[in-house]
């Protein structure tokens, strides 16, 4: 999953309605800059901007969802992130439990073997040395 934390910063959005009066000065944009975004289609409400001389899509970010990818084609949600974190945590916990169980079994087997090999056999001995 891509890091989208930089998308949570406020970014200027185009106005939803054009101004009622035409601007007195027209900002001069090089035609190469505006032409770069003509061939880029950003999905899911993304906006094409020129970043370091390359057309890039700025994807929408909501309260509990965000779009990502080269063209904002993928969606990520808070629920997906939570499920991924929970699944990862449970997987690590499961591996730790298995390692603990295997370790305990190995220690018990080693202890049982050691106690059997070092056990004392007591027999009644007669005075003549024969049992």
From TrEMBL:
Biased composition (Pro residues): 12-25
Family matches, as InterPro entries: EGF
Transmembrane feature ranges: 83-107
Region (Disordered): 1-32
Keyword Membrane: yes
EGF-like domain span: 33-73
Lineage top rank: taxon: Eukaryota
Entry annotated with the keyword Hydrolase: no
Keywords, sorted A to Z: EGF-like domain, Membrane, Transmembrane, Transmembrane helix
Stated name of the protein: Meprin A subunit beta b
Organism: Amphiprion ocellaris
């Amino acid at each position: 999953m891509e890091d989208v934390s930089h998308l949570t910063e406020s970014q200027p959005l185009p106005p939803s309605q054009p101004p009622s009066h035409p601007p007195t000065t027209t900002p001069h944009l090089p035609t190469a800059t505006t032409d770069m975004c003509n061939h880029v289609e950003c999905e899911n409400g993304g906006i094409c901007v020129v970043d370091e001389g390359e057309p890039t899509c700025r994807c929408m970010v909501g309260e509990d969802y965000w779009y990502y990818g080269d063209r904002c084609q993928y969606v990520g949600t808070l629920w997906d992130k939570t499920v991924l974190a929970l699944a990862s945590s449970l997987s690590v916990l499961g591996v730790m439990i298995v390692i603990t169980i295997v370790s305990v079994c190995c220690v018990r087997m080693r202890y049982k073997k050691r106690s059997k090999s070092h056990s004392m056999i007591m027999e009644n001995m007669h005075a003549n040395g024969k049992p």
